[in-house]
Amino acid sequence: MNPADIFPTSFNSHSPAKPTVYVKELSEKDRHRILRHFLALEESDRLLRFGTYLPDAMIEKYVEGLDFSRDKVFGVMSHHFRLVGVGHLAFAPRSEKDEATDKDTVAEFGVSVSKDARGKGVGAKLFERGAIHCRNADVDTLYMHCLSSNQTMIHIAKKAGMEIHREYGEADAYLKLLPADAVSVLREAVQEQVAAIDYTIKANARAAAKWLRHLPGVSDIGKNK
């Protein structure tokens, strides 16, 4: 078994100084962070993520409707404990017109990355995590819908070997996934465990920093220099 098949890879294997992308499954307690991430997206980024521009009220409604018991939401946290990437893996029953699979369930993936975190492989790692979860959940077809102008997602789709169909300025892509095996199950479990440790460390560091800022006299140290 190759360790590279299990452990996360860095943003750039040729540049070890760059941090590693840790992808963690998010839960109900992260709903407010997900909302903050989407609200921070610029108008053009909202268009690319949702296929249309969504005002704040619609984004709030979308986040409120996330069902963590049915779908899977994955995130990448910055060193400042801020969500810089969100991947939403939505499951749905297979339609009668879907000839790509014989399974009862299919999945669709949507991803967004904060402007200051782009070019670091965040979107690709979120997609990889979504794909491996599908494999382990016995889902063999992963769909992705985006605007044809969304070159980042088109690149991710092509790199993953997805079959892409373009029509009327939009692109639909799907990826056929291999069945789960011991490596895929172990890989997802280990990556989630490592990401959970990273999440906890960053959360504790942020809490400690907030606590220190509220200590008497600490906020005045810089003022007296």
Describe this protein's structure.
- With 225 residues, the chain is α+β, with helices and mostly antiparallel strands.
- It has six helices and seven strands, in the order βαααβββαβαββα.
- It has helices at 31-39, 43-50, 56-64, 122-136, 151-159, 182-213, and strands at residues 24-25, 72-77, 83-93, 105-113, 141-147, 163-167, 170-176.
- The protein has a seven-stranded mixed β-sheet, with helices on both faces.
- The N and C termini lie far apart (57 Å).
What is the H/E order?
EHHHEEEHEHEEH
CA radius of gyration: 19 Å
pLDDT under 50 segments (min length 5)? 1-16
Spatial sequence of strands, sheet with the most strands = 1-2-3-4-5-7-6
| Secondary-structure-derived class | alpha+beta
Percent strand = 15-25%
How many distinct beta strands?
A: 7
Helix content: 25-40%
Q: Averaging pLDDT over every residue, what do you get?
A: 86
Characterize the biggest β-sheet.
7 strands, mixed
How far do the termini sit from each other? Answer: 57 Å
- Which outline best applies? globular
- Annotation field: number of helices: 6
